[in-house]
TrEMBL record, chain A:
MF term (GO), any: FAD binding
UniProt EC number: 1.2.99.2
Source taxonomy: Bacteria, Pseudomonadati, Pseudomonadota, Alphaproteobacteria, Rhodobacterales
Name of the molecule in the record: Carbon monoxide dehydrogenase medium chain
Gene: cutM
Class of this enzyme: oxidoreductase
Domain of life, source organism: Bacteria
Sorted UniProt keywords: FAD, Flavoprotein, Oxidoreductase
Keyword DNA damage applies: no
Keyword match Signal: no
One Pfam family this sequence matches: FAD_binding_5
SMART domains noted in UniProt: CO_deh_flav_C
Residue stretches making up the FAD-binding PCMH-type domain: 1-168
Listed PROSITE patterns: FAD_PCMH (PS51387)
TrEMBL record, chain B:
Molecular function GO terms recorded: 2 iron, 2 sulfur cluster binding; metal ion binding; oxidoreductase activity
PANTHER family: OXIDOREDUCTASE WITH IRON-SULFUR SUBUNIT
UniProt gene name: coxS_2
PROSITE patterns for the chain: 2FE2S_FER_2 (PS51085)
Ranges where the 2Fe-2S ferredoxin-type domain occurs: 2-78
Name of the protein this chain belongs to: Carbon monoxide dehydrogenase small chain
Species: Tritonibacter horizontis
């Protein structure tokens, strides 16, 4: 790692100020950023830790029944703390990495990083979540802009994420056992207004909504509704762990399993 | 250099670190607590697992300054002051839960975190919890058996010696 200064503010306002410094970067749980720094792929002048900011941790239920999670809340806390209010989201958090990763990694860090195989992007997109930052609110549909790319501006902090709670939902993760990330993960969420299906791990464009499946499931929320629907292998990720065609096939399989588990 | 203070195995400890100093480097190099191992240095293997404020974390993927003011527990603090092994350590010895011993400090610390939350885990829960702890020697069976035994459960039916 190159040298850097370390700051640990206790309020969002102080963090925003610290992030105003040249080449400053936010530090969530460090589970992605610290390995990146070790490889000298980033060279911040100052790391601004967000985990000491009390107003950015914790889980609350808002007046309209949505679940709001502080941006610096670790995966283990979501797995426990959201279990009653939004079980599918809690179950997803409990499947990220391993216990030690879940005790450090944060929801804000995961969404800011937008790894194409990460789990939270699927939950945020399928739930139609709102990404709340220190300056604005961003709808999930506008937030994810391709692999490792988001609508966040430099120095912008995810202070919380607000999830509308679906009538039924489930996340199915096909584990890539070496990385512990998703080879393919599908989050299905059924709302009164319709069904949303978000797929992670599969596309070179990062997380995406599978609109054909959404339409089919809106008329019949059952695994059979997916029969005959396919995703084109073009644009899927192909690597030593799985070919494009394999991942395209898994999208259908995992969607069916998610619907079966949610229905 | 910045001053960092934390409680390590119940004792207050202070040292000078850089922003980039890892918690594991502080423990091993500054405090001389070399029981916490570095296997991969890429947050994969779990040889470096310690507890920070009661939660298992990979000390190779946390900065020392992030532990300012925290309670840190390492393998050195697991046995009694007179060297008597705790229940988990004794079970690892009894059930041959180690061969080269490189993964063992992380395994014991992960096991301690598991049993604190879930005092009577099933075999499947133990295996699942150890997802982030790699062992290149034992094939895991005896580690799982040792942890089951440490939780006070009958392990006579669990395969392999
Ligand atoms: C062994 C292992 C297995 C894993 N398995 C999975 C898995 O199965 N599924 C999965 O989804 N993830 C997995 N991860 C990734 C893990 O969830 C990370 O914790 C997560 O991707 C990054 O979160 P973090 O809090 O550690 O962020 P950091 O590493 O601290 O930061 C990542 C990036 O986000 C920025 N950032 C951090 N917080 C904020 C914020 N609040 N606002 C704005 N920007 C911010 C940082 O500047 C940095 O650019 C795994 C990681 C490891 C090491
Ligand atoms: S040395 Fe920390 S996880 Fe391997
Ligand atoms: S005993 Fe050798 S790595 Fe586990």
């Amino acid at each position: 790692m190159y040298e850097f200064e370390f700051a640990r503010p206790t309020s969002v306002a102080e963090a925003v100020q610290a992030l105003g410094a040249e080449e400053a970067q936010a530090l969530g749980g460090g589970q992605t950023l610290i390995p990146t720094l070790k490889q000298r792929l980033a060279m911040p002048s100052v790391l601004v830790s967000l985990t000491g900011i009390a107003e950015m941790t914790g889980i609350t239920t808002t007046g309209d029944g949505a679940v709001e999670i502080g941006g610096a809340t670790c995966h283990a806390d979501v797995a426990k703390g959201a279990a009653a209010a939004y079980p599918a989201l809690a179950a997803l958090a409990g499947q990220i990495g391993d216990p030690a990763v879940r005790n450090r990694g944060t929801i804000g860090g995961s969404l800011a990083n937008n790894d194409p195989a990460a789990c939270y992007p699927a939950a945020a997109l399928a739930s139609g979540a709102t990404i709340v930052t220190n300056v604005r609110e961003i709808a999930a549909d506008d937030y994810f802009q391709g692999m490792f790319t988001t609508a966040l501006d430099e120095g912008e902090i995810i202070t919380s994420v607000r999830f509308p709670v679906p009538q039924a939902a489930n996340y199915q993760k096909f584990l890539q056992p070496a990385s512990r990330f998703a080879m393919v993960g599908v989050f299905v969420a059924k709302f009164a207004e319709g069904v949303r299906v978000a797929v992670t791990g599969a596309s070179e464009e990062g997380v995406f909504r599978w609109s054909e499946a959404e339409a089919a499931l809106a008329s019949s929320f059952s695994p059979d509704a997916i029969d005959g629907l396919t995703v084109a292998p073009d644009g899927m990720i192909g690597d030593i762990h799985g070919t494009r065609a394999y991942r395209a096939h898994l999208v259908g399989v995992m969607t069916k399993r998610a619907v079966a588990a949610a229905a | 250099m910045t001053k960092v203070t934390m409680t390590v195995n119940g004792k207050p400890m202070t040292g000078e670190v850089e922003g980039r100093t890892l918690l594991v480097s502080f423990l091993r190099e500054t405090l001389g607590l070399t029981g916490t191992h570095v296997g991969c240095d890429t947050s994969q293997c779990g040889a470096c697992v310690v507890h920070v404020d009661g939660a298992a974390v990979k000390a190779c993927t946390m900065l020392a300054l992030e532990a300012e003011g925290a309670e840190v527990a390492t393998i050195e603090g697991q046995a009694e002051a007179d060297g008597t092994l705790n229940a988990i350590q004794a079970a690892f010895q009894e059930h041959h839960g180690l061969q080269c011993g490189f993964c063992t400090p992380g395994m014991v610390m992960s096991a301690a975190a598991l049993l604190k939350d879930n005092p009577k885990p099933t075999e499947q829960e133990v295996r699942h919890y150890l997802e982030g702890n790699l062992c290149r020697c034992t094939g895991y069976h005896n580690i799982v058996k040792a942890i089951m035994a440490a939780s006070g459960q009958d392990v006579s039916a669990i395969a392999a010696e």
